[in-house]
Amino acid sequence: KIISKTCTGPVNIAVIKYWGKRDEKLILPINASLSGTLDQQQLRAKTTVAASAGFTKDRMWLNGQEQSLDNPRLQNVLKEIRRRARKRKSGCEDDLDMLTWRVHICSENNFPTAAGLASSAAGLACLVFSLSKLFNVDGDISDIARQGSGSACRSVYGGFVEWEMGKEKDGSDSVARQVASENHWPEMRVLILVVSADKKHVGSTAGMQTSVKTSPLLKHRAEKIVPERMQAMIEAIQKKDFESFADLTMKDSNQFHSVCLDTYPPISYMTDISHKIVRMVHAINAHFKKSVLAYTFDAGPNACLYLLEDHVPLVLGFINHFFPYDVNNEQYIRGLLSEPQK
Ligand code: DP6
């Protein structure tokens, strides 16, 4: 007998960035962060998990290739799911049996992995969501997703999502929570400009470790800047104040990349084309005499633009005019927002 579940999980794009951990094992951040979860029509992870008494060990395939599960993060995730399932099911013999079964995990993304397109977030959120369905674990699972990859905890919910930093040592209060649902701001769009689908030169995990050790700006950012910025961002979203939302988003992206440069040795994720996109966005905003477009860059050169539906045709016109060869023609336009789906 084999029991299986297949689910899909969304990408999220942070507008207040997570960069730096205070606990490497539990993946606890040094600051809160906030993102929009994208709908799953074009970009998503898809995972099938199967359990059977006949499987001899846990195994996993990513985009068709077998991966080692000998990885502390994945082990923690599996352990925690089984622990919660056991807690829930004690007293029910049949189900308890299933908890000793090994699982096979098959996961794929329909977009470039590790190119700064938040693939780990979608993948890990989807994995944890699928396992929770397989083992009938309910309640908040964002803290389990967090232990797979920090930013993955935000992909567990749709709409705009905050990852609370938390104070507890065991991480119990470092969880994701929805700030506004997908229906709150239906005009919101995200346009992803794929500048390069290459693997990033320094992965986020290693990059933020070096930043925590060497960047004085990071400490200042975490203590003095982010707490106020989080409040202002939540207010901008609640009021649907696009100008404030855009200004905060761009400033936060710029500060995150400044922290990367302040890291020693420095890390640079943005390329000349990324910087040219930044200049274009500011030129468009200057023309309108207000911010109608916001850029944000993660640990890679690709740009994510947040904008309102009305401005999409105009902005696409500018992009095709200024970047006819530099930006992948399949620019993804995304609406916000959807949570993982069974
Ligand atoms: C720049 O979540 O990939 O995208 O917790 O080590 O797995 P780990 O890092 P990860 O870092 C994402 C960093 C970021 C900013 C963000 O999404 O908030």
UniProtKB/TrEMBL annotation:
A Pfam family the protein falls into: MDD_C
EC number(s) stated in the UniProt entry for this protein:
4.1.1.33
Can you name one GO molecular function term for this protein? diphosphomevalonate decarboxylase activity
Diphosphomevalonate decarboxylase-like N-terminal domain: which residues?
10-176
Give the catalysed reaction(s), semicolon-separated.
Answer: (R)-5-diphosphomevalonate + ATP = isopentenyl diphosphate + ADP + phosphate + CO2
| Gene3D superfamilies found in the cross-reference section | 3.30.230.10, GHMP kinase, C-terminal domain
Tell me where in this chain the Mvd1 C-terminal domain is found. Answer: 190-342
Q: Where are the transmembrane segments?
A: none
The processes (GO biological process) annotated in the record are: cholesterol biosynthetic process; isopentenyl diphosphate biosynthetic process, mevalonate pathway
Pathway per the UniProt entry: Steroid biosynthesis; cholesterol biosynthesis
Assigned GO CC terms:
cytosol
**Record keywords, A-Z:** ATP-binding, Cholesterol biosynthesis, Cholesterol metabolism, Lipid biosynthesis, Lipid metabolism, Lyase, Nucleotide-binding, Steroid biosynthesis, Steroid metabolism, Sterol biosynthesis, Sterol metabolism
Keyword Ribosomal protein: yes or no? no
Similarity comment: Belongs to the diphosphomevalonate decarboxylase family.
Function noted in UniProt: Catalyzes the ATP dependent decarboxylation of (R)-5-diphosphomevalonate to form isopentenyl diphosphate (IPP). Functions in the mevalonate (MVA) pathway leading to isopentenyl diphosphate (IPP), a key precursor for the biosynthesis of isoprenoids and sterol synthesis.
Write the protein's name. Diphosphomevalonate decarboxylase
